[in-house]
Each structure stands twice: as structure tokens, then as C-alpha cells.
């Protein structure tokens, strides 16, 4: 058994070159149409990026946070914040480590808003980093690479000197699109091979897209209601919350607040509701005492305002799970928002005026 | 750094252009630095072992060449062997022998506090210690002049493509290639590129996907049906072949692009027709090493039948132990030793007839028989401890019929090995390991596309290390 190549040494590797050309063509197509290879989160985040880059619009109040904020309608924001135009700039599954990156991306395209609505809850600080942090969790990281505009993201990574993260980014963009988005492509391939043509998004995902296109917000689970033992199950299976702050999360949130301050932005903490069981659990493990301390650290910044109640409690029938409202919960949240913000408006105006008078560095 | 990683892709993207830009001395110097970086990327602390192994054998070779006195020459040889085997023994076998000795004392009812020795096993230690030892032995035998250039010798020991999982190169093959300018041609790029591509396919699509069939069964043998064990064993046969031969292919392909010709390590081993044929096709560099430096010095095929059988068994037992410090590897070596002895005893006469003259159906039957004998050996190789044979036997006897999920595993096994088998059949029929490159252009384009998209759409990109790294 030998190795004999029958192609003569003077001939170009024609087959390989043709194959490489075809691969490049297919990969380019796969990249350009990658949205079909993903879930509904991405058409929506793409739409958000389009809104972000739309120069014909201007925003004075933006929402920054995770999926718990998806439901906040910009029109409701506008009403609550005294006619300021709103933009829901929330992203899925990101912990506080990402806020800084997202604000950086926002400011790359637009002038600073006056107000950022953000959440600061116990689980945001105590959730283990490997579950939500942009720099540690592959799922979160891959989403960040997909949704954050390349230039501001890479600039910020370099500014932070986070070389490991930069390397992960380089690896991510080096992967062929057919590999990166293969789940979606395989779904499409299977459907086409089965003679069903190119499949659309499942109905429930299509509803997100339609609702977002209509209101620039959407409720994740319309009818679902929180079941008994949900808190215990959720905590056991996913979060494993402890009475321990992730120092990285706290530090990054402070970085974000400071960055907002440098940019003349007031951060309004408007937490979304949780069930009574979860609050009871927080109290049981002592996390609420720590939370008071963490909140004080954040509230010490002169560009931070905290809306009351700090942690709203909703009955189970208004919640889809421990972190997300259902349609009825969304309705109540929207009804209450103006009432929660109204007493803060004079303070916000005062802080904005004070920051405007400060000499710019 | 593993071959199917982005790290390696970027590493090679830097090394290759530098290599072609530099003159010979610069090339060798750069390759040495690159090789140390390649190894140190895994754990820089173990670079010292590479360095120690290099210094010991360079000095030993030099000492042997300079000294006319047999006693001194022998002392240098002993130093090399003790040094290399000492490093290997300390990191790889110390814990095993201490554990086994303690087990023995316990078996005799002698009470004591157990000592647990748990060393990190440096990647590829068995490969490079064997490689460097062969150099000193060759110099001692007068088969090879001692290498005077330390840079060349250090590169021979650490040459990154084959450093951690072979082929175990002979100094007679590699050092002259290091010392002399390499010939560069388009052919090297074509065949080297194919070897890398084919290797990646075998590793990422075949081996790493098959591991998902094998690992769950072999980690829970008590709960597996006999059918599942059977499927997992077939899957392991292809997994280990695809994994190990993939490493060799990528190593040889990378080296070939730079103008180096590394030795063949696999010649379609599952087309072997008997045990002796198998060892001429499987991990050739190790079996030749064992033949030249152990079997033949023991007496080889000379002497009485009992002496030859003893030589075979010792060689195979140590060959098994080379793979790892566990009794199942010793049992695997024993099993193959037994196959070789039986083959030598009962089937020797048939070997005189050229294989090509046999009717096809007889050859196919022999290939199938040998494949199944090999699979039986893989059971010993794959289990964690010999006690695992109990649940396997129970499963095969009492729970043979498949569960629903076992059919999925069987389908996955077929799906992930079909193209590999087709290509191998082509290689076998044409008696040419590069037979793919002589297919018509449109067929090759289709094949390349099929391989590429199988990789991107179906490859297992979970950074699983090559199996033979642990040896």
C-alpha cells in the first residue's frame, strides 16, 4: 500500500480550487442570510440595530436590561417620562457585564440619551458568572458577537484590555457561517429534503417578530402563569442563588453607571416584578440584607435614581415565570409605570441640569 | 494545542509563511521555537522534560560517537535509556506500580496506610522518549552518525507536527531532512493539503461524533443492552482509528507542506487479513520500534518455537503497557500477543501464498474475521478496569436485544462511517492511499464539498483532545 498522487506536479489543484470557490460562495450566502439560521431573537435584535442606526429618529430615554424588559413599550416610556421619546434597547440573557458594552455600542451611533432605565436586582448580582456573563458564557458571548456592532464592540474590548475576550471574538468570527449557524441551516435542510420547502419561524417566534414590528416591544409568554414550586425549581435547576455577590458583576455595573455619568446620563433603576416566593427566599438566605448594601453603593452615584417599590411583588397569575410578566402582568406594569416614575421626575431633571452645568472633560 | 482548533489554525498561519521566507538555518531555528511554543501552550512547565530528554540523548549520542571504548559507549547508552525510561516511568507508571504493589499487599492481608500518587501525565511523553531513545540506540549500533548540531537534534526531538502523538520518527529518516534543504513543490501542497483535510474530517466528523455513541455506553456498562455494547464497540473501533490516523494525517500533511516526509503510520488496518498483517498496518511506527528495539534484541524469530512465542508475548505485553499504566492495556497486549502466537502456530503456511492469488470471498472472510478479532481487543482497550468485563458479559448474554435508542446509535454509526468506508474501499481497491487524488475532477469537487459541509454542519466542535495524547 503506497501513496501515489496521479496528478502531475505542474498541474494546478483544479478540483481543490473549484471546491474552495464554491465553498466561499456558499459561506457568503450563509452569512448574508444567517438570520434564517437563528431564532426569533435575532430578527428582533437586528431590527433594534436598524432602529439604533436610524438617523431620522431621536431618543431621550432608553431601556437597557435583559429579557425581563422586552415587554416595555416605548410609547409607555414616553408617557411615563414626560413626553421623552423612548427606545427599548434590551437584549436577551445578558448580565451587568454587558451593560457597559451595550452603552458603548449605543453611543457609537447616537448622542447620549438623557435617561437610561436599567434593572438592578439581587439575582443580577448573585447569579454565577458562568450563567450570564458575556465574557464567560458561550451562549451569551455568541449572542453578543451577533448583536453588538463589530467596531464599537472590538474598540471597547481593546479599551478594556480584555485580550482573552478579544481572542474569543477572533475565534468566533473565524468560524465558517455554516458552522456557526448550523442549527438553523440543518432545520432548513431537513425541511427542504422532506419536501416542505424553506420553513418560517415557529408560530410563537413569529408572534414576537410581529408584535415587535408593531410596538417595538413584545411579551414573551402571553398566557403562561407561574406554577407552584416554580421558585424552588428555577433556583435549583438554573440560578443556584447564594447570598454572595459576584464581585465582577457589581464592579461592571458600577463601571456602567460611571460611564453613563461621564456621558451625562441619569440611570433610573426600575426593577421588574418578582413573585412573593422569590422575595421570601431572598430573605431566607439573607440576600436582602446584602442587596440593601449593594443598592446603597449604586445609589451613592449622583446620576442614579431608584424607583419605588425597589422590588415590586406581583401575584403568580401576573407572572409567566419568576422573572417575566405575562400579558396581564405587562398591562399592570405599564399602568403602574407612570406612577412609579412621576415622583422621580423633578429629581431626574435636577440631576440632568447639574450634569449639564459640569465642565466637560 | 490540538490540530482541530482555531489556535492551531492561527499558529500554522503564522508558522508557514515565516518558514517559506527564511533560509534553512532560520527555518530550523524558527521551527524549534514554534515546536516549543506548540508544546508549552498545553503546559509550559513540561518543556523542561523535552529539554532534559534532548540534552540527555544529544550528550549520549555525542559521547558514544567520541568514545572508542565499548564500556564507555555502553555507559552512555545506559544513561540514555535510564534517563528516558526514568522520566517515562516516573510520570506514567510510578502510580500504577505503587498501586499494584499496594493491592498485592492488601491481597495478602498486610495492613498499611495507602499512598496515592497522582502525577499529571505530560502530553506525548511516550512518543518523544521512544523517539529520542531510538536515536541513541542507532548511534550505539553504528547505524547512524551522532548529530553534532544541537539545533538540528533539538528539532528532531520536538518537531511539532509529530511531537505529541507520532509517528515515532527514526533519526535516520528525520535528521537528514532537518539538516538538508527541503524540496518544495506544488505536489507537496496538494497531497499535504489533502492529508490535513481528510484528517480533520476523520477527527471532527467521524471520531468525535462516534465518541458520543461510545462514551455513554462504556461509562454505564451495567445499564447498557448487549446490542448497545456491540454498536459502541464497533463505533469505538472506528473512533480510535479515525482519531489516531487523523492525527497522523494532519501531522504528515503539515510536515509535507514544509517539505518533510514523515513515515506512514496506518495502512488501512481494518483491511488486515491476519494479526501479523494488522501490526504491519496499525501504528506502524510503534510496531516497527518494538520490533527493532525489543523483539529482535530479545531474539526475534530465531530459536525454538517457545522462545519465539516468549519474544512475541513480551513485546506485545510491553506494547500494551506503553499505551497506559492500566491492567486493561496489559490485557490488550496479551490478547494481541496471543493472536500473533496462534497465527504463527496455525496459519503460518497460508502466508506463503500471495494474498492477491486468493479468491476474493476468502480474503473478505479473513478481513471480516480479523476485524472482529480486533474489535474484541478494543473492548479490552476501552474499558477502564478489567472488572468491567463482567457487566459486558452480562449485557451480551442477558440483555442482548436492542432498546429503542440503540437503533439511533446504530444509524449514527453508519451515517458517520459510510464515507470513511467508501474512501477506504477505493484506497484498498487501487492499492493507493492517495487514490482520491486520482479521481476525475468533478468527482473530487463533489467529494471535497461533501467533506467540508459534513464538517461544518455535522462536525463535533467540542475541543476533544486526540485519544493518543494520553499515551
Structural description of this entry:
The complex is a heterodimer of chains A (361) and B (471). Chain A has helices at 14-32, 41-53, 74-80, 99-109, 122-126, 129-132, 138-147, 150-160, 163-174, 177-180, 182-193, 203-215, 230-239, 247-262, 276-284, 287-299, 327-341, 345-357; strands at 61-64, 86-88, 115-118, 266-269, 304-306. With 361 residues, chain A is mainly α. A five-stranded parallel beta sheet of chain A has the order 2-1-3-4-5, with helices on both faces. In chain A, helix 4 crosses helix 8 (150-160). The longest helix of chain A is centred in the first third of the chain and has 19 residues, at 14-32. Chain A is globular and about 80 Å long. Chain A starts with 13 loop residues before the first helix and ends with a helix. The model of chain A has no long low-confidence stretch (mean pLDDT 84). Chain B has helices spanning 6-21, 24-40, 47-66, 70-107, 125-141, 150-158, 171-179, 186-219, 226-257, 275-279, 284-298, 305-323, 327-346, 360-382, 389-398, 404-430, 441-458. Chain B is mainly α. The model of chain B has no long low-confidence stretch (mean pLDDT 88). In chain B, helix 11 (284-298) packs across helix 12 (305-323). The radius of gyration of chain B is 23 Å and the shape is globular. The longest helix of chain B has 38 residues, at 70-107. The chains are: A mainly alpha (361), B mainly alpha (471). Chain A binds chain B through residues 1-7, 9-16, 18-19, 22-23, 26, 170-171, 174-176, 178-179, 182, 185-186, 189, and chain B through 6, 9-10, 185-187, 189-191, 193, 264, 267-268, 281, 427, 431-434, 437-438, 441-442, 444-445, 448-449, 452-453, 455-457, 459, 461.
Instruction: Identify the biggest protein-protein contact and residues per side.
Output: A-B, 31 and 34 residues
Number of helices of chain B: 17
Overall pLDDT level of chain B: 88
Which stretches of chain B are poorly predicted, pLDDT < 50 over at least 5 residues?
A: none
What's the β-strand tally of chain A?
A: 5
Number of beta strands of chain B = 0
Residue share in helix of chain B: 55-70%
Helix share bin of chain A: 40-55%
The parts of chain A where pLDDT drops under 50 for at least 5 residues are none
For the CA atoms, what is the radius of gyration of chain B?
23 Å
Give a short account of the largest sheet of chain A.
Answer: 5 strands, parallel
H/E element sequence of chain B: HHHHHHHHHHHHHHHHH
Amino acid at each position: 500500500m503506497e501513496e501515489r498522487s496521479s496528478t502531475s506536479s505542474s498541474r494546478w489543484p483544479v478540483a481543490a480550487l473549484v471546491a474552495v470557490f464554491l465553498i466561499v460562495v456558499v459561506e457568503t450566502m450563509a452569512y448574508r442570510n444567517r438570520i434564517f439560521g437563528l431564532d426569533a431573537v435575532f430578527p428582533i435584535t437586528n431590527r433594534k440595530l436598524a432602529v439604533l442606526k436610524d438617523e431620522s429618529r431621536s431618543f431621550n430615554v432608553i431601556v437597557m436590561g435583559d429579557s425581563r424588559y422586552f415587554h416595555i413599550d416605548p410609547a409607555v416610556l414616553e408617557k411615563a417620562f414626560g413626553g421623552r421619546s423612548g427606545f427599548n434597547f434590551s437584549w436577551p440573557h445578558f448580565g451587568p457585564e454587558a451593560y457597559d458594552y451595550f452603552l458603548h455600542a449605543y453611543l457609537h451611533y447616537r448622542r447620549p440619551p438623557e435617561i437610561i432605565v436599567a434593572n438592578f436586582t439581587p439575582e443580577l448580582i448573585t447569579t454565577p458568572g458562568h450563567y450570564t456573563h458575556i465574557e464567560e458564557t458561550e451562549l451569551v458571548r455568541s449572542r453578543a458577537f451577533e448583536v453588538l456592532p463589530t467596531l464599537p464592540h472590538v474598540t471597547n474590548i481593546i479599551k478594556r484590555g480584555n485580550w482573552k475576550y478579544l481572542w474569543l471574538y477572533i475565534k468566533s468570527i473565524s468560524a465558517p457561517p455554516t458552522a456557526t449557524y448550523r442549527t438553523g441551516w440543518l432545520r432548513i435542510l431537513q425541511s427542504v429534503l422532506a419536501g416542505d420547502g424553506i420553513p418560517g419561524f415557529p408560530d410563537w417566534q413569529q408572534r414576537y417578530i410581529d408584535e415587535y414590528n408593531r410596538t417595538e416591544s413584545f411579551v414573551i409568554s402571553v398566557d403562561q402563569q407561574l406554577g407552584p414550586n416554580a421558585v424552588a425549581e428555577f433556583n435549583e435547576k438554573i440560578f443556584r442563588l447564594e447570598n454572595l455577590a459576584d464581585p465582577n458583576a457589581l464592579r461592571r455595573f458600577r463601571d456602567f453607571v460611571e460611564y453613563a455619568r461621564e456621558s451625562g446620563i441619569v440611570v433610573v433603576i426600575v426593577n421588574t416584578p418578582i413573585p412573593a416566593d422569590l422575595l421570601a427566599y431572598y430573605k431566607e438566605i439573607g440576600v436582602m440584607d446584602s442587596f440593601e448594601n449593594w443598592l446603597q453603593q449604586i445609589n451613592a452615584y449622583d446620576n442614579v435614581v431608584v424607583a419605588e417599590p425597589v422590588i415590586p411583588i406581583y401575584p403568580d397569575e401576573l407572572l409567566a415565570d419568576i422573572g417575566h410578566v405575562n400579558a396581564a402582568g405587562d398591562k399592570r406594569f405599564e399602568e403602574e409605570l407612570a406612577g412609579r416614575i412621576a415622583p422621580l421626575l423633578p429629581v431626574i431633571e435636577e440631576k440632568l441640569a447639574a450634569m449639564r452645568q459640569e465642565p466637560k472633560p | 494545542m490540538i490540530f482541530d482548533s482555531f489556535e492551531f489554525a492561527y499558529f500554522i498561519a503564522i508558522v508557514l509563511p515565516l518558514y517559506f521566507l527564511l533560509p534553512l538555518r532560520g527555518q530550523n531555528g524558527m521551527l524549534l521555537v514554534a515546536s516549543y511554543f506548540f508544546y508549552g501552550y498545553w503546559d509550559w512547565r513540561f518543556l523542561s522534560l523535552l529539554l532534559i530528554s534532548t540534552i540527555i540523548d544529544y550528550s549520549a549520542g555525542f559521547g558514544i560517537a567520541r568514545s572508542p571504548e565499548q564500556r564507555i559507549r555502553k555507559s552512555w547508552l545506559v544513561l540514555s535509556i535510564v534517563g528516558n525510561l526514568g522520566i517515562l516511568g516516573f510520570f506514567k507508571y510510578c502510580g500504577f506500580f505503587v498501586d499494584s504493589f499496594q493491592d498485592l499487599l492488601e491481597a495478602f492481608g498486610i495492613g498499611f496506610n495507602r499512598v496515592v500518587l497522582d502525577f499529571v501525565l505530560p502530553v506525548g511523553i511516550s512518543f518523544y522518549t521512544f523517539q529520542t531513545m531510538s536515536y541513541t540506540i542507532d548511534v550505539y549500533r553504528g547505524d547512524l552518525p551522532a548529530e553534532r548540531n544541537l539545533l538540528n537534534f533539538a528539532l528532531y526531538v520536538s518537531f511539532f507536527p509529530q511531537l505529541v502523538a507520532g509517528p515515532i520518527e527514526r533519526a535516520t529518516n528525520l535528521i537528514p531532512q532537518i539538516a538538508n534543504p527541503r524540496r518544495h513543490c506544488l505536489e507537496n501542497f496538494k497531497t499535504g493539503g489533502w492529508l490535513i483535510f481528510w484528517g480533520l474530517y476523520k477527527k471532527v466528523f467521524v471520531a468525535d461524533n462516534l465518541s458520543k455513541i461510545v462514551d455513554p455506553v462504556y461509562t454505564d456498562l451495567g445499564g447498557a443492552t448487549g446490542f448497545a455494547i456491540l454498536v459502541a464497540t464497533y463505533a469505538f473501533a472506528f473512533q480510535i482509528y479515525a482519531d489516531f490516523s487523523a492525527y497522523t494525517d494532519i501531522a504528515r500533511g503539515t510536515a509535507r507542506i514544509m517539505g518533510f516526509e514523515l513515515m506512514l503510520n496506518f495502512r488501512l488496518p481494518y483491511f488486515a487479513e491476519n494479526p501479523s498483517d494488522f501490526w504491519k498496518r496499525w501504528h506502524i511506527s510503534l510496531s516497527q520500534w518494538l520490533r527493532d528495539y525489543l523483539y529482535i534484541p530479545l531474539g526475534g524469530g530465531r530459536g525454538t518455537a517457545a522462545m519465539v512465542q516468549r519474544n512475541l508475548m513480551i513485546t506485545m505485553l510491553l506494547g500494551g503497557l506503553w499505551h497506559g499504566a492500566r491492567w486493561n492495556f496489559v490485557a490488550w497486549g496479551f490478547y494481541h500477543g496471543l493472536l500473533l502466537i496462534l497465527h504463527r502456530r496455525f496459519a503460518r503456511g497460508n502466508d506463503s501464498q500471495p494474498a492477491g492469488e486468493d479468491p476474493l470471498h476468502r480474503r473478505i472472510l479473513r478481513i471480516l474475521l480479523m476485524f472482529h478479532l480486533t474489535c474484541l481487543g478494543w473492548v479490552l482497550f476501552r474499558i477502564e478496569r478489567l472488572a468491567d468485563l463482567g457487566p459486558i458479559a452480562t449485557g451480551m448474554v442477558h440483555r442482548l436485544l436492542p432498546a429503542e435508542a440503540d437503533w439511533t446509535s446504530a444509524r449514527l454509526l453508519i451515517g458517520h462511517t459510510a464515507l470513511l468506508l467508501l474512501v477506504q474501499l477505493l484506497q484498498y481497491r487501487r492499492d493507493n492511499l492517495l487514490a482520491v487524488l486520482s479521481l476525475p475532477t468533478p468527482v473530487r469537487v463533489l467529494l471535497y464539498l461533501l467533506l467540508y459541509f459534513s464538517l461544518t454542519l455535522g462536525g463535533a466542535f467540542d475541543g476533544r483532545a486526540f485519544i493518543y495524547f494520553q499515551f
